[in-house]
Design a protein that fits this description.
Blueprint: H1 2-19, E1 38-49, E2 64-65, E3 70-76, E4 82-89, E5 95-99, H2 113-116, E6 117-123, E7 131-132, E8 142-152, E9 156-163, E10 166-169
Parallel strand pairs: 1-9, 1-10
Antiparallel strand pairs: 1-2, 1-5, 3-4, 3-6, 6-8, 7-10, 8-9
Amino acid sequence: MASNHLTIFICSLLLLPLVFPSTAAHDETAPIEPMKKKVDVVVEGIVYCQSCKYSGSWSWTGAKPIPSAKVSVVCKNSNKQVSFYKTYETDAYGYFYAQLDGFKMSNNVLDHPLHGCHVKLVSSPLTNCSLLSNVNYGLYGAPLRFKNKVLRGTHYEAVIYTAGPLAFRPARCTPESHV
């Protein structure tokens, strides 16, 4: 009779996880997947209209931000092939925040944004300030800088690179009279 009770007890222990799945023992050999952190690469900067007085220089004196100006972010891989290209528009204060969705690095050193990405001027909505200038290499591609700016969340991180201020210049500047 005792062996019957023992058999019933063992069978009930074996059937318990099937009847009450929450009581099943956790398989300690199965690895627990940690929550992956999403990491974004971001480029930021400001686009100005350079004042006539300082046109042709790299001076920002008298410069005004341009809302709705367009810039492009171009990234090339270690083989000098374009691996990322997208245009971005500045906000009401001339500021752009370019989240590089889809940016990939196949070589962590050579394809790094500091080596492979540049920001170029595309267009200005201001008809009186729409000529490209090469301030901070806006014509050929402003290099990126990292100033230890990182936004962190529980499952999110944005590494932010900065392009130096870029500028369009006025098409017509009246010469100063020295009377």
